[in-house]
């Protein structure tokens, strides 16, 4: 009995860390919605321990994008550089770490950034460098981005295999440093990816004598992405076995021993499981126009990050269900075996000790079953962009924010923007309301 309790205690200690709570995410998002991005970044900083050692990559990503929105590119880039290294390191996780997914819950492993999140780190770092007029460093991020996306296209046959927006951004950066061949290839990849996703391909007017003008490339990061939250569901054991018998996306299948345990008499009861679902966040500024020299130019949607999040979760659900079912069976088997072990070692005629241990192990197993709701949650829902060619010299450009009916609900002005002939200036503004 003492050994059983000791084992349960060890499991609890090993799985104490969880994902940042919804309440915490709501608090950060509320500050972002009022434009207090630096204050929101400070809240993230104050909750660093909440992320745990395994999920420092998420801490760095969440704080980095808020600092980027607060127009602090240097501080943002330090965190993004660390996050990129952590993402690289995560690919070398041990098999032992993954074993915990089948015994405790999906939170036992370090967070493995989604491919779309990895691609966006290159965009954010490039923008940070461009804000500092460091086009060469931005080009390094563009090359890293296209290399990463080339690898995805070669290793995956479905789902997220390319990013049209990141490819388009890379083409602009390559053009800015005179790498026209790389720019052409990245632009072609962007167009193919837009067609693949069925998204509207952006079309921008570029004058034939563009080098005689200055160019302003304006980004509007709009809204808040859907948040992952935990959903509970009660399933009958025969349904659990059906999920366990369905191979995960990587071809894994449940062991014969687990199948035999279920067939041996675990069917007929039910179990409560937890899994991640998406909760949409409301916001009002859903599109925008640029006003410069009396002319209004609509911004075009470049990427739908909310759609990428849904696609990513949908692609992972078969594996999530598979691990849920396998864990449910293993935990039930462990509870029954614990009861038998105590009964065999006890002189209690009524087997009350065995029943108590079975109940305890079952309850702890249920308590440890937590949905993996981790995500880079400070991203915008969509990113819009326009390209504006202006007469060289000082400029004032305004971003007119629109609601879903096209009504202008607010305005943000970039003042004293100087653009030289043949030069590009990259600007961005984030709205989360």
Write the layout of secondary structure elements.
Elements: H1 2-14, H2 22-33, H3 37-46, H4 48-51, H5 56-69, H6 73-90, H7 95-103, H8 115-131, H9 135-155, H10 164-176, H11 180-197, E1 214-222, E2 227-236, H12 237-245, H13 256-266, E3 270-279, E4 287-292, E5 295-298, E6 300-304, H14 305-345, H15 352-368, E7 382-390, E8 393-402, E9 408-419, E10 424-431
Parallel strand pairs: 1-10
Antiparallel strand pairs: 1-7, 2-3, 4-5, 4-8, 6-7, 8-9
Helix pairs in contact: 1-15, 2-3, 3-5, 5-6, 6-8, 8-9, 8-10, 9-10, 10-11, 12-14, 13-14, 14-15
Q: Structural class of the secondary elements?
A: alpha+beta
**Total count of helical runs of at least 4 residues:** 15
Low-confidence parts:
4-16, 250-268
- What is the total tally of β strands? 10
Widest β-sheet, arrangement of strands: 6-7-1-10
Shape: elongated
Order of helices and strands: HHHHHHHHHHHEEHHEEEEHHEEEE
Descriptive account of the structure:
With 433 residues, this protein is α+β, with helices and mostly antiparallel strands. Helices cover 52% and strands 19% of the residues. The chain has a four-stranded mixed sheet. Strands 5-4-8-9 form a four-stranded antiparallel sheet, with no helix packed on it. A two-stranded antiparallel ribbon has the order 2-3. Helix 8 packs antiparallel against helix 9 (135-155). The termini are far apart. 39% of the residues are buried. Residues 4-16 and 250-268 have low confidence and may be disordered.
């Amino acid at each position: 009995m003492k050994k059983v309790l000791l084992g349960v205690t060890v499991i609890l200690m090993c799985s104490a860390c969880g994902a940042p709570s919804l309440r915490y995410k709501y608090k950060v998002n509320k500050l972002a919605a009022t434009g207090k991005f630096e204050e929101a970044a400070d809240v993230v900083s104050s909750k660093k321990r909440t992320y745990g050692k395994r999920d420092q990559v998420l801490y760095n990503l969440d704080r980095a994008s808020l600092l980027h929105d607060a127009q602090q590119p240097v501080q943002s880039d330090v965190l993004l550089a660390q996050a990129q290294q952590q993402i690289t390191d995560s690919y070398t996780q041990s098999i032992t770490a993954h074993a915990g997914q089948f015994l405790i819950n999906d939170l036992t492993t370090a967070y493995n950034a989604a491919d779309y999140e990895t691609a966006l780190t290159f965009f954010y770092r490039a923008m940070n460098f461009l804000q500092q007029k460091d086009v060469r460093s931005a080009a390094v991020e563009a090359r890293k981005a296209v290399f990463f996306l080339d690898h995805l296209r070669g290793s995956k046959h479905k789902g997220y295999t390319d990013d049209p927006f990141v490819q388009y951004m890379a083409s602009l950066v390559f053009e800015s440093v005179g790498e026209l061949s790389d720019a052409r290839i990245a632009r072609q990849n962007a167009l193919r990816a837009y067609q693949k996703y069925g998204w509207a391909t952006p079309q921008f007017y570029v004058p034939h004598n563009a080098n005689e003008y200055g160019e302003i490339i304006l980004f509007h990061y709009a809204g808040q992405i859907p948040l992952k939250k935990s959903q509970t569901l009660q399933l009958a054991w025969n349904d659990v076995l059906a999920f366990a018998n369905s191979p995960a996306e990587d071809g894994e299948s449940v062991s014969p021993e687990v199948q035999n345990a279920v067939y041996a008499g675990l069917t007929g009861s039910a179990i409560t499981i937890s899994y991640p679902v998406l909760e949409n966040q409301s916001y009002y500024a859903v599109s925008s126009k640029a006003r410069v020299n009396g002319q209004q130019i609509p911004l075009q949607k470049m990427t739908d990050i909310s759609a990428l999040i849904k696609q990513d979760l949908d692609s992972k659900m078969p594996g999530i269900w598979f691990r849920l079912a396998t864990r449910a069976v293993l935990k039930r088997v462990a509870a029954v075996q614990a009861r038998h072990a105590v009964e065999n070692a006890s002189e209690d005629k009524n087997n009350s000790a065995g029943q108590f241990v079975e109940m305890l192990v079952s309850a702890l197993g249920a308590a440890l079953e937590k949905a993996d709701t981790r995500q880079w949650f400070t991203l915008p829902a969509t990113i819009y962009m326009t390209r504006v060619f202006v007469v060289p010299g000082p400029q004032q450009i305004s971003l007119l924010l629109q609601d879903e009916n096209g009504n202008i609900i607010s305005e943000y002005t970039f003042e004293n923007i100087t653009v030289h002939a043949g030069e590009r200036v990259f600007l961005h503004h984030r709205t989360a309301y």
